[in-house]
Design brief:
405 residues, 3 domains, 18 helices, globular
Length: 405
């Protein structure tokens, strides 16, 4: 049986997050906020899920470019592995820097900086948009001549390191501060303090920041997150708010030259009041944490189930048909949207719950294609649809105890 052992990364990283949480708790450090941690993990689940579906495409692109446009006939050797690692880190620096300096790229990267916590859960806060964007930058590597197999291998190792620098538990690391990107350096990068903005873009080596003048030491107390916080738990809004802000900002500009300047200019040129207007238009607001214990338990179980399904999905991805992969993907994404909506106590969550029920029903029919089972499932769906509003009222009353937004 062909298994994808990359699935083991899911429990591995979750265990490390739990270990960090327990150590912080034992040291009486308030480094974890429940809703922030849930949001961070949910973003990571979505990225791992969607990245699993398209990661083969990344390899195909690298291989195609290398075979058709590769400049140098590179074959693996110790020195060339080292050279590829350095080239990868150098490319990352410029990808990361431009992702902060160009609005079009910042739209893909901003989600990683939304959390007002700084811990291992933040390392999971990567979107598939960001994965696609940085793949575009790494396409220079196969054109240089590095084979796709070498590139993918180095990217796996290179991508592992950043997880460990998203923590406040590790202080400064002596001489390593002059060579590697350390937790201290990366805490500066995630700061919203004016003095720390646009600093420390490196991924593994800090030398690029020192070479190109973007280095800053950790000195004053750090405030994490965006300079203009989102103040919402919405999974969808976290992903798409800046894309919409940029769209409206470009639309407001007159002339193609000005529109292009907005697209490729820096984030600070966008009018901050645009977001306020969009939040009002789409009723984006945080309603607090009423019924916190009940809601938290319900959300936690949904996140745990999503992680379990994700693990199985990745482990057995080669054995699932495209129909099953599509159903699992839809089920998980709806669950992640549902978690954010529940934390904001939105009334329309029952539609998401019903959608999940429909997905499960379709899966049952696909796996057990008999007339009796299909008829039974359709009958149940018909009955629940007939009593939809009654079920909705009872569900909302159970989940929110009568308090909805």
């Amino acid at each position: 049986m062909k298994l994808n052992y990359l699935a083991l990364a899911v429990p591995f990283f979750i265990l490390l997050m739990l270990a960090e949480f327990l150590i912080a708790k034992r040291k009486k450090k308030n480094y974890f906020n429940f809703t922030n941690s849930i949001a961070n993990i949910n973003v990571g689940i979505a990225e791992r899920l969607l990245d699993t579906l398209i990661t083969g495409l990344f390899f195909f692109v690298y291989d195609y470019l290398n075979r058709h446009y590769g400049i140098l006939p590179i074959t693996p050797s110790v020195l060339l592995w080292i050279a590829l690692f350095i080239c990868t880190d150098f490319t990352w620096y410029w990808y990361h820097r431009l992702a902060h300096e160009i609005n079009l790229f910042w739209a893909a990267h901003i989600v990683h900086h939304q959390s007002e916590d700084f811990n291992y859960t933040v390392s999971a806060r990567i979107t598939v948009f960001q994965a696609i964007l940085r793949t575009g930058f790494w396409c220079v590597l196969p054109i240089i001549g590095f084979p796709a197999e070498m590139i993918v291998s180095v990217l796996l190792v290179h991508g592992l390191y950043p997880f460990f620098i998203h923590t406040r538990l590790i202080g400064k690391l002596g001489i390593l501060e002059y060579i590697l990107v350390t937790p201290s350096h990366h805490r500066v990068h995630h700061a919203s303090n004016p003095v720390y903005l646009d600093k420390n873009y490196g991924d593994v080596l800090i030398i690029w920041d020192k070479l190109f003048g973007t280095f800053a030491k950790e000195e004053e107390e750090i405030v994490y997150g965006l300079t203009k916080p989102l103040n919402t738990h919405s999974f969808l809004w976290q992903h798409f708010h800046f894309i919409m802000e940029l769209f409206y900002a470009v639309r407001m500009e007159k002339g193609w030259l000005n529109k292009l300047r907005m697209l490729f200019g820096k984030p600070e040129i966008i009018d901050p009041t645009i977001r306020d207007g969009l939040e009002k238009k789409f009723h984006i607001r945080n309603h607090g944490d009423r019924n916190e214990n009940e809601l938290n338990q319900y959300v936690v179980w949904q996140v745990i189930s999503s992680l379990g399904i994700l693990f199985i999905f990745i482990l057995f991805e080669h054995h699932f048909s495209w129909e099953v992969q599509a159903l699992i993907t839809c089920f998980i994404i709806i669950t992640l949207v549902n978690c954010g909506a529940i934390l904001e106590q939105r009334q329309w969550i029952f539609y998401l719950e019903y959608s999940r029920g429909v997905i499960v029903s379709i899966a049952i029919i696909l796996y057990y294609p008999s007339v009796s089972i299909t008829a039974s499932v359709m009958l149940i769906l018909g009955i629940t649809l007939y009593f939809f509003h009654t079920l909705e009222d009872r569900y909302l009353g159970f989940v929110y105890k009568g308090e909805v937004a």
